[in-house]
């Protein structure tokens, strides 16, 4: 079971939109039931990151992360997603 940390500025609005698109993407690639997602504020990400396999964030990677970072902006915008999708799939593997 992969643990995904999902962060935006407030930990709610933007990350909720990204979460929906990320879940659809993961499920369509056979990962349904193989992951959990926790949303948080970007300021909380460094403290929480040790307990997660990777972070998807709609902001720049914060310092002192203890897990890999994936740019979540493409998931928010729904365009130019290839690099972020490849990174997520590699981390899920």
UniProtKB/TrEMBL annotation:
GO terms for molecular function: protein-N(PI)-phosphohistidine-sugar phosphotransferase activity. Keywords: Transferase. CDD domains: PTS_IIB_galactitol (cd05566). The keyword Transferase applies. InterPro entries: PTS_EIIB-like_sf, PTS_EIIB_2/3. One of its GO terms (biological process) is phosphoenolpyruvate-dependent sugar phosphotransferase system. Pfam families: PTS_IIB. Residues 3-53 form the Phosphotransferase system EIIB component type 2/3 domain. This is PTS galactitol transporter subunit IIB. It comes from Granulimonas faecalis.
């Amino acid at each position: 079971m992969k643990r995904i940390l999902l962060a935006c500025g407030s930990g709610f609005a933007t990350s909720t939109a990204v979460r929906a698109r990320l879940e659809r993407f993961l499920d369509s690639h056979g990962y349904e039931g193989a992951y959990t997602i926790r949303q948080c504020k970007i300021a909380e990400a460094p403290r929480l990151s040790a307990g997660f396999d990777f972070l998807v964030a709609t902001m720049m990677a914060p310092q002192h992360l203890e897990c890999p970072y994936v740019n979540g902006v493409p998931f928010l915008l729904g365009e130019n997603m290839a690099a972020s999708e490849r990174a997520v799939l590699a981390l899920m593997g």
